[in-house]
């Protein structure tokens, strides 16, 4: 850097390196355009008549969305209830309990709430629908409806490498995450598609009051990345990604098919509009069940075998389940497979010669 | 980008572009080192025996710090009170009211609280000390003490371009902001120096639950920037910055010295350990008072003269005050000066020839 350039940092910074862009928002309009284009080429979401909101990861947008939806609760004195399906992404519960707002209470299981008759059309309810679901990779629909129900859709995993793209989603409030689109988790970038202007404005205020918008370095990098992705209609990255995860699932399925002790989630193949064929689901996580009655803590059984998963109870489920991540480096995955083989090999009823072909 | 590189984005991303660095934290240790070095060369803060925490701007760290301090309130049923001095940075109030936590209530004026006798050593109190203060640029000290008082120091403006560096601050919890250090507001980067491990860990959890850490693109950029700054002991950027703001204050003081209608804050010069001389304060904002009894809304009077400031009531003060920003581009500043001249020129008792020398 020359001296003049260096000295110019400060004063030009006060203008051009501001919190906001020239239109007074913290959102790069160029990046917004590329994101709309991305959804259009992938066919996973309708972006017409939607506001696009940016956040420091879907993490921040989740908090913003739940906050905004809980504030529409003006006429009722009791806090809005946050509901979802079991197993669920732990962040929903963690955030709700951590913020400890007067307007929100984490309640958990939407189906149980419905059956209990507590869905009285008076208590405000926010249902989070994660589709494909974390941890089990299944496509999900809302359980609740009614005038008192607001639905928040977390579509972080609704990309061709993880799931058939069955239709373009067309919901009131949908969230997406760069970390699951291109893998850049460390960039902390997510976005939301929001139909209702009042909800959008409340979310925008949340983002401003918690971080004054989203890093411009990040927005610039994401713009470059997504331009490459949409450049060939996503073909290269999604074909590569799908191929990679599919191969991992084939390996995994082979191992688990020899086991009577452990089982994997199964999901029926569906037609994928993106790849124009019926295809398997290839979720980012294996949701493993320990089938033996005495194996009550599946996490500990895997940990003893040097495999670190996440305990099913983190997802509001039983300890009989453990989540294993498949979206790691190839080295980490190979290590996982080596350890899994040892674990299944030691089951009494598995013939050792079966392992030759994995 | 070659095809192999592009395809590698996805899977390598799942490993190397993770939320966390290799040590399991979201904090670049290289950047942490440069920040400690920066405080040491500027002499504005002691960093020994401190945890360094990163946030998406001081905005996020403020929320994290207030949250962490309010949670130490376990034995008491009433919420902690958030206190500060008037005039204060509006964000403190806005955040506290927006999050509407069961553990915190914004109360406002620390001196009034002290005098009211409500400082009963039982109710937990968090005092925010902003030094130099936003909006008036004055150095501040805590008003309250006692076993029930936690103090949070916002040192965003404690840099040589804005203030004499009178001593290295050595407090329990201090916050700093890149936007006021180098001007890169849009990067959304701030940091805190935290003495107490339990408070640090609560803040860390807040950052994880609201954004899963801080953008790596940002951290990389900030590392490059601050390496340049510490490279010459900050000499070039702080001399340039101080020179620029000083010149702006000289112009401003000339204009206001001709006015009987408006007055500016005054702060006595102090010895600056960084520049090794007694020097004027050169705050980032002018805190203007409308002196005429009939000028009850100073913001509106400036607005009518095409000068957009911020109303004093935003800072918990009277509408008789308005805050004008001096940390804008040279063009914006020149525009401000042109409009100010017109405004003061039209005061009846100012001779027009005085304006020739500004």
Task: Explain what the structure shows.
The structure is a homodimer of 358-residue chains. The first copy, chain A, is of the alpha/beta class. Chain A folds into 2 domains: 3-231, Type I PLP-dependent aspartate aminotransferase-like (Major domain) (Aspartate Aminotransferase, domain 2, 3-Layer(aba) Sandwich), CATH 3.40.640.10; 235-357, Aspartate Aminotransferase, domain 1. Chain A is built from 11 helices and 13 strands. Chain A has helices at 3-16, 29-42, 57-70, 90-99, 110-115, 178-181, 197-211, 216-231, 235-257, 298-304, 330-345, and strands at residues 51-55, 80-84, 104-109, 125-130, 149-154, 173-177, 190-194, 262-264, 270-272, 277-279, 285-290, 310-311, 321-325. In chain A, the strands form 3 sheets. Chain A has a 7-stranded mixed β-sheet. A 4-stranded antiparallel β-sheet of chain A has the order 8-11-13-12, with helices on one face. The longest helix of chain A is centred in the C-terminal third of the chain and has 23 residues, at 235-257. The N and C termini of chain A lie far apart (55 Å). Chains A and B meet through helix 1, helix 3, helix 4, helix 7 and helix 8 of A and helix 1, helix 3, helix 4, helix 7 and helix 8 of B.
By CATH, the superfamily of the largest domain in chain A comes out as Type I PLP-dependent aspartate aminotransferase-like (Major domain)
CATH topology of the largest domain in chain A: Aspartate Aminotransferase, domain 2
- What do the pLDDT scores of chain A average to? 91
Q: Rg of chain A from C-alpha positions?
A: 22 Å
How far from one another are the termini of chain A? 55 Å
The largest contact between protein chains, plus residue counts on each side, is: A-B, 68 and 68 residues
Number of helices of chain A: 11
Q: Give the CATH level 1 class of the largest domain in chain A.
A: Alpha Beta
Relative helix content of chain A: 25-40%
> In order across it, which strands form the biggest sheet of chain A?
1-7-6-5-4-2-3
Organism (chains A, B): Arabidopsis thaliana
GO molecular function, one term (chains A, B): transferase activity
Keywords (chains A, B): Pyridoxal phosphate, Transferase
Protein name (chains A, B): Pyridoxal phosphate (PLP)-dependent transferases superfamily protein
């Amino acid at each position: 850097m020359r001296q003049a350039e260096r000295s110019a940092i400060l004063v030009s910074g006060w203008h051009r390196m501001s919190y906001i862009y020239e239109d007074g928002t913290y959102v790069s309009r160029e990046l917004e355009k590329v994101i709309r284009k991305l959804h259009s080429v992938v066919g996973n979401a309708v972006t017409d008549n939607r506001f696009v909101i940016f956040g420091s990861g879907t993490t921040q947008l989740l908090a913003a969305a739940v906050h905004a939806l809980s504030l529409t609760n003006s006429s009722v004195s009791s806090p809005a209830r946050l509901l979802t399906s079991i197993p669920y992404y732990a962040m929903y519960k963690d955030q709700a309990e951590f913020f400890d707002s007067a307007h929100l209470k984490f309640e958990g299981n939407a189906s149980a709430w419905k059956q209990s008759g507590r869905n009285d059309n008076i208590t405000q309810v926010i249902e989070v629908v994660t589709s494909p679901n974390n941890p089990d990779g299944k496509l999900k629909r809302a359980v609740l409806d009614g005038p008192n129900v607001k639905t928040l859709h977390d579509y972080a995993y609704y990309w061709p490498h993880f799931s058939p793209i069955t239709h373009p989603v067309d919901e009131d409030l949908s969230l997406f995450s760069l970390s699951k689109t291109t893998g850049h988790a460390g960039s902390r970038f997510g976005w939301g598609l929001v139909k209702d202007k009042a909800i959008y404005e409340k979310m925008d205020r949340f983002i401003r009051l918690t971080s004054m918008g989203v890093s411009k370095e990040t927005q610039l990098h994401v713009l470059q990345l997504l331009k490459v992705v949409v450049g060939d209609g996503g073909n290269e990255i999604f074909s590569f990604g799908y191929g990679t995860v599919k191969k991992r699932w084939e390996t995994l399925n082979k191992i688990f098919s020899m086991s009577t002790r452990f089982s994997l989630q199964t999901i029926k193949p569906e037609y994928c509009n993106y790849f124009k064929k019926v295809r398997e689901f290839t979720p980012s996580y294996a949701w493993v069940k320990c089938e033996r009655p005495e194996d009550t803590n599946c996490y500990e059984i895997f940990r003893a075998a040097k495999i670190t998963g996440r305990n099913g109870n983190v997802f509001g489920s039983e300890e009989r389940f453990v989540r294993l991540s498949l979206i790691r480096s190839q080295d980490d995955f190979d290590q996982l497979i080596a350890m899994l083989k040892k674990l299944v090999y030691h089951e009494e009823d598995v013939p050792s010669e079966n392992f030759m072909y994995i």
